[in-house]
Request: fold
Amino acid sequence: MKRKYIFGVLLTVGLIFINQMLIQYALATIKQDAKHINISGRQRMLSQRLNLQFYQLSQNSIEFKTLKETFDLAKTSHLALIHGSKELSLNGIKSPEIVKMLEKLNERYTFTGNIISNFQQSSELNLESINQNQQLLLEEMDAIVNALEMKSQEKISGIVLLEIILALFSIIIIALEVRYIYYPQANSLEKSRNQVLEQNKALKQIAWQQSHEVRKPVANILAISQLIKTDPTLIDSEKNQLLNHLEESTHDLDKIIKSIVDKAYEIQQENVGNR
Reply:
């Protein structure tokens, strides 16, 4: 029973540990997904900003350095989504489908990089082609963000389902532990308690016999013995009668003692059987 109890406790602790590990994994996964979605959403914003800054640059209303910084940030974030980044504490996206979608954007960033390089050499901008390229990039980033959100939702749904299955499994295991470990142990304790009460009752009866039933024959024996010893007037017939009474009292005492011994033996055997 002790081994079963220890096994039950260890099993319960194991289930709690697995549940906590699953929760921590779920939180880490959701956190990474949230970063991916956040950075992808920012990529859409940077795409729109680049389009605006190209127009401002053509009007000489911003410095070239400002546009270059925006482009470098967008490209660095794009590569971080694919390969991961220690600086951003970001893991690369694991979904092959979404990675393939992101890799298609390499052409968009290459095109924008070439536009920037050509501007450094010739100071010329084709706003129409730039606008078209950024519009396509924006549309593709929208699709990527939607795909990321769907993947994240699928993960959450899967984790919730797994949590429900684990919870049901835990309930079944705990129910089985109660049925086959704790309930029998409780019954055993109740049985032991009842046996102790019965033994106490028997011991009280023995104590009562010792204090009441034994006293009577002992008192008779003492009185008869004292009378035979101290009364010189007794004749032989009276002495014989007293001796008969003495023998009867002795037999009564022997019966009582035997009864007490038998009950004590029964209690001892019950204790041996319950070990």
The chain is about 90% helix and 0% strand.
